[in-house]
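Quick one, tokens below. Sequence please?
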């Protein structure tokens, strides 16, 4: 039987990590787990319930009441995240969540909670997971690690278009400040900072189309699958 692998995709905000992860999952018939959506859902719960980010007891109590799951959406053709059985896929993309998610994701208890859930999902392999510490912390032994990057101006334009669809008052400057702040927090946090794994393949998609980046990634996947199956036959 053909072996399945874990594909870990990391990188900066608005580099297209989730887009590539969804494309790969669809092509390979793998499960796509959006770790960023998990942190956004936790942030949404914290904001809704006025959880104090600096109060350890408040955080621990809140995490006990959070259940996250992914369900396939037949209309969109992708998996939506559910927070305590509520589909919050739209709500977690709001600017108010974007402004706080890096701060929440830097909390040690939150990261332990999320990583534990992510590892359980990955037990059976055949998954594509994107985030900021997937190849370094969550799945350090993933067969394929991709680190995505792109020019900051390109990333700002991409995120601006995403936000503008739901908020016509958003400005380019606000989006740029938000991205730069998130990059700084994600790269400098004490727990699982954003960094490239030593064995990760760097994919700079500044000048690539979605089709081009998918082809590059698929070539890497098939190369890894070929090696994995070759070794499994020998074993």
């Amino acid at each position: 039987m053909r072996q399945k692998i874990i594909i870990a995709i990391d990188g900066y905000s608005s580099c297209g990590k989730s887009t590539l992860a969804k494309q790969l999952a669809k092509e390979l018939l793998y499960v796509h787990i959006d770790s960023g959506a998990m942190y956004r859902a936790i942030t949404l719960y914290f904001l809704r319930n006025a959880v104090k980010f600096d109060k350890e007891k408040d955080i621990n109590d809140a995490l006990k009441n959070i259940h996250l799951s992914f369900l396939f959406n037949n209309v969109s053709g992708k998996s939506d995240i559910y927070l305590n059985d509520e589909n919050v896929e739209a709500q977690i993309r709001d600017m108010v969540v974007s402004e706080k998610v890096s701060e929440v994701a830097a909390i040690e208890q939150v990261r332990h909670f999320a990583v534990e859930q992510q590892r359980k999902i990955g037990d059976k392999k055949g998954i594509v997971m994107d985030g900021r510490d997937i190849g370094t912390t969550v799945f350090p032994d993933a067969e394929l690690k991709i680190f995505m990057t792109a020019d900051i101006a390109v990333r700002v334009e991409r995120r601006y278009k995403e936000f503008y669809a739901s908020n016509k008052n958003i400005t380019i400057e606000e989006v740029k400040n938000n991205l730069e702040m998130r990059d700084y927090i994600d790269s400098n946090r004490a727990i699982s900072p954003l960094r490239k794994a030593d064995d990760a393949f760097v994919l700079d998609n500044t000048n690539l189309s979605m089709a081009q980046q998918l082809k590059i990634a698929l070539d890497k996947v098939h190369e890894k699958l070929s090696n994995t199956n070759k070794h499994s036959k020998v074993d």
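Residues 6-221 form a domain with the Rossmann fold fold (CATH 3.40.50.300). Residues 210-234 form the longest helix (25 residues).
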